[in-house]
Design a protein that fits this description.
By secondary structure, the chain is an alpha+beta fold. Helix content is 38%, strand content 13%. The protein is globular, with a radius of gyration of 21 Å.
Length: 443
């Protein structure tokens, strides 16, 4: 079983999913694996050959990162649009300005998403830098991302009890069924997954969810309905996993919230694992971090708690203030105990064999070291929250801003200034009178 649902033991958590929900989730996971494994067509693909070498060969400046993985040919399955989910129909282009994404509808009533592994920064680099060395350098920093992150995270999430949708690496076929999207998507290597939806006349729903709320609706609802609750313990478990895997890019748009029968409160569904295991090496990134940028290295030793959590500061501050230290540490120890050596090995084996041969042992060693140090890191995480928690007698107001989104972060150019600014905002939040609206709402 590969991670559509989180495991449950009645003795370990307050509620448990109704058997109907569990069986439905298992059926979806089995169908996903069966449909993909039944495909006979496979193709050799390369995630990003352009990252094999840094611009000008200056890897000591721009980092070695995961260049070996991006440039390594891998054998992957070709997505069968005719048979998967009874047949897939493209709906619309998704993915923002960096990711090539396609929303799809299955004949089984479920929604699916295809997200290209490679990214393009041309849509986020200021116009005056397009076609210059600045754009080349910003684009090159994609090499710091781990191209198979979602596959590994799914297995780890399942083990520690975090909701997740199973994902697979596939190649989009050159198929007329893609319609107007054929030219843009044919032959693209990407991650394919279910897009969680609620129960409807046509959709059986993700874990039988009766409602799934996204951004910014969730914050409006929480403000307007004080009785509405998010399962803060489930959210803490998810955030502890984020810290373990070095996923620092967990701003408020990276979450959806599910109302699941039998569960207490809305359940968090993490999205977009592009920065999990990310490893930004090189002198340039080191200098950027000195100025406050949070493009981190994935190492055995944890970076600072602020660097790991600053992008999710506002959400953490709103949702985790009701958990006292003894319970916080109990949950942390439970997460640590579930990430066994076997779990780590099985999770890493989900990446393509070609990738595992190059980096499997290294990543396993790093994950085990981070797991073994997690008690001290969780203690530090608690300390970073507790002074603020004690000051909050009531929950602050969290605003769902209608302002235009801030410029997207890219490379080490705008991220440095933005992160420094956000650190300042976070420090200002220590004031008892500060509200979440002060922390920036459109990340």
């Amino acid at each position: 079983m590969t991670g559509l649902i989180r495991p449950f033991k009645k003795s370990q958590r307050p509620g448990f999913l109704r058997m109907k929900s569990v069986l439905a989730a298992l059926a979806v996971g089995f169908a996903l694996l069966q449909d993909l494994s039944a495909q006979t067509e496979k193709k050799i693909a390369i995630a990003g050959a352009r990252y094999a070498k840094a611009p000008g060969g200056q890897e000591w400046i721009l980092g070695h990162d995961y260049r070996d993985l991006w440039a390594t040919p891998i054998e992957v399955e070709v997505l069968n649009l005719k048979t998967f989910a009874g047949g897939l129909k493209p709906v619309m282009r998704v993915g923002g300005r960096e990711t090539l994404g396609l929303a799809m509808k299955g004949q089984d009533g479920r929604d699916y998403t295809f997200r290209g592994v490679d990214k393009s920064v041309s849509g986020v680099v200021p116009e005056e830098f397009l076609g210059t060395a600045v754009e080349d350098i910003a684009q090159d920093q994609v090499a710091g991302g781990f191209p198979a992150a979602g596959l590994v995270v799914s297995a780890l999430a399942h083990a520690v009890g975090v909701l997740d949708v199973d994902s697979r690496l596939v190649v989009m076929p050159d198929d007329p069924l893609l319609g107007e999207f054929q030219k843009e998507f044919a032959g693209v290597l990407g991650v394919f997954m279910e897009y969680p939806g609620s129960v409807s006349d046509t959709n059986p729903g993700f874990l039988s969810s009766t409602e799934i709320i996204g951004h910014p609706a969730i914050w409006q609802r929480l403000n307007e309905r004080p009785e509405l609750r998010v399962d803060s313990r489930a959210f803490l478990r998810a955030r502890l996993l984020d810290i373990l895997i070095g996923d620092w890019d967990r701003h408020r748009k990276q979450w959806r919230w599910a109302r699941i029968p039998g569960e207490r409160g809305l359940q968090p569904i993490p999205e977009d694992r592009d920065q999990a295991f990310s490893d930004y090496e090189g002198v340039a990134m080191g200098m950027a971090r000195m100025r406050g940028a949070t493009f981190l290295k994935f190492e055995k030793k944890y970076p600072s708690v602020n660097a790991l959590t600053i992008d999710g500061w506002d959400v953490d501050r709103y949702l985790l203030t009701d958990i006292e230290k003894p319970e916080w540490m109990r949950i942390a120890r439970e997460v640590q105990s579930r990430v066994t050596d076997e779990v780590i090995e099985n999770a890493l084996r989900r990446m393509p064999p070609e990738y595992y041969k190059l980096r499997g042992s290294e990543l396993a060693s790093t994950l085990k070291a981070r797991r073994d140090q997690s008690n001290s890191s969780m203690e530090a995480t608690w300390k970073s929250r507790s002074p603020l928690s004690k000051r909050l007698q009531t929950k602050p107001t969290i605003a769902a801003s209608s302002r235009k989104t801030k410029p997207k972060r890219f490379g080490f150019i705008s991220k440095v200034g933005m992160t420094a600014s956000r650190l300042g905002e976070a420090k200002a939040a220590a004031s008892p009178s500060a509200s979440l609206a002060d922390l920036g709402t459109t990340w």
